Amino acid sequence: MSGETHLPTLLAGLAPELLSGEYVFISVPGRRYGDLSELSPLAVMAEKEGLSLCVPRHLAVRHGHAHQGCFRCITLSVHSSLEAVGLTAAVSAALAAAGISANVVAGARHDHVFIPADVAEHALTLLQRLGESCRAGAASG
Fold it and tell me: Is the pTM of this model over 0.85?
């Protein structure tokens, strides 16, 4: 389960996939891991202010959880190592150049980029182009 660490290989193999559905981030004080499983969290982080969860928007609304923003998730399908250097920076830079915010959550095998829902398709296109240009560069070099 080591994953790729070589940045040009990572970028050439990005293979970004836009997940279906919309997600929101919520923070719930006084909760622990395993709590709120009814919200089907995609990601969970324990913070000093409370349990922070990324959950499907419709479930947050149904259960009355306040949130700001609505996001879509782009999974970078390349198997990246947690020790890889530069992948998050390259992806963030490509999106930032287009004025798109990116919230990156790393899993054991892949990085997941949460993008404002209204620009998710555009962000997907930008990341696809980033991968294509890196593949073209590798083929010519």
Answer: yes
Which residue matches tokens 């892949």? 110
Angle value at C-alpha 39, between 122 and 102, nearest 5 degrees: 25
DSSP 80: B
Q: What is the pLDDT of residue 123?
A: 98
Q: Which two tokens stand for residue 37?
A: 């499983």
Extract the residue ranges of the chain whose pLDDT is less than 70: 1, 140-141
What residues form DSSP beta bridges with 104? 113
Closest of 42, 33, 39, 108 to residue 72, by C-alpha: 42
Query: How open is the CA angle 28-70-67, to the nearest 5 degrees?
Result: 25
Please give the single-letter amino acid code of residue 77. Answer: S
